């Protein structure tokens, strides 16, 4: 058992763990969330895989933060899973969204620090920068959902439902500045947030991802 734990710890200390984290995040955003939470079965699947993403992130956070932070996030994840499955209360959804926002901000920051840390710039680190980019979309989708829960339907026009998939779809299209127009922000707060997300969506690839790719090219030129 100890040898297995050590192997897991060694793996998450390596750059290739960033690639695994990206795959898990892609599955979560473009597959799991899209099923929504229409019944108890899918609610359990949705929550369980969300916790799986959180747990993987916890393994990554463990290498850069104190044990107390990791323990807090683990307990909060377990509470969130049970609460989401057992109740439909609005306050539970609000707390869940707030927790996910804070968690994704922490994980995204840690991944960026790891991506730009000393050492060779591998393709895994480039994928790590994409992890942080997608986490931005996840953060904004939950912020939109929080506003929706507080304000109601007036916050957006064109929503098909209140499922997370609607807000995830709107967030990704805004982050990528696609602007289909099927869902639109309808109050100043959601308009400001969507403008901010669109601005980040343009600047992040142009500055950070371009920078790390150029760092990789410079590294291999010197090697």
Characterization of the model:
This protein is mostly helical and 223 residues long. The protein has a single domain, classed as Helix Hairpins. Helix content is 77%, strand content 2%. The chain contains eight helices and two strands, in the order ααααααβαβα. It has helices at 2-12, 16-32, 40-61, 67-86, 90-115, 123-151, 164-175, 188-222, and strands at 156-157, 184-185. Strands 1-2 form a two-stranded antiparallel sheet. α2 packs antiparallel against α3, α3 packs parallel to α5 (90-115) and α5 packs antiparallel against α6 (123-151). It is globular, with a radius of gyration of 18 Å. The model has no long low-confidence stretch (mean pLDDT 79).
Topology:
Layout: H1 2-12, H2 16-32, H3 40-61, H4 67-86, H5 90-115, H6 123-151, E1 156-157, H7 164-175, E2 184-185, H8 188-222
Antiparallel strand pairs: 1-2
Task: Quickly list its features.
223 residues, mainly alpha, Helix Hairpins, 2 strands, 77% helix, globular
The average pLDDT value, as a whole number, equals 79
Largest sheet geometry: 2 strands, antiparallel
Write the CATH architecture name: Orthogonal Bundle
Name the assembly state. single chain
Tell me the helix content.
Answer: over 70%
Task: Give the spatial strand order of the biggest sheet.
Answer: 1-2
What is the straight-line distance between the termini? 39 Å
What is the CATH third-level topology name?
Helix Hairpins
- What Rg, in angstroms, do the CA atoms define? 18 Å
- Helix count from the secondary structure assignment: 8
Anisotropy-based shape: globular
Report the β-strand fraction as a percent range: under 5%
The class by helix and strand makeup works out as: mainly alpha
- Which regions are unreliable across 5 or more consecutive residues at pLDDT < 50? none
The number of E-state strands comes to 2
Topology pattern, helix = H, strand = E: HHHHHHEHEH
* The level-1 CATH class: Mainly Alpha
What's the structural domain tally? 1
């Amino acid at each position: 058992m100890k040898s297995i734990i050590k192997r897991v710890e060694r793996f998450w200390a390596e750059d290739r763990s960033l690639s695994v984290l990206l795959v898990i995040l892609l599955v979560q955003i473009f597959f799991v969330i899209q099923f929504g939470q229409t019944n108890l079965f899918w609610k359990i699947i949705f929550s369980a895989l969300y916790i799986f993403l959180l747990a993987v992130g916890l393994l990554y956070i463990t290498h850069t933060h104190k044990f107390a932070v990791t323990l807090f996030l683990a307990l909060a994840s377990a509470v969130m899973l049970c609460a989401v499955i057992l109740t439909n209360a609005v306050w539970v959804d609000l707390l869940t969204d707030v927790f996910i926002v804070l968690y994704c901000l922490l994980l995204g920051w840690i991944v960026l620090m790891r991506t730009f840390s000393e050492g060779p710039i591998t393709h895994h680190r480039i994928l790590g920068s994409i992890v942080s980019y997608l986490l931005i979309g996840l953060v904004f989708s939950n912020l939109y959902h929080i506003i929706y829960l507080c304000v109601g339907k007036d916050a957006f026009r064109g929503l098909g439902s209140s499922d997370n998939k609607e807000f995830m779809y709107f967030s990704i299209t805004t982050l990528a500045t696609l602007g289909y127009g099927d869902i639109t922000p309808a109050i100043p707060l959601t308009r400001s947030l969507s403008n901010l997300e669109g601005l980040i969506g343009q600047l992040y690839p142009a500055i950070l991802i371009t920078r790390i790719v150029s760092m990789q090219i410079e590294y291999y030129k010197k090697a």
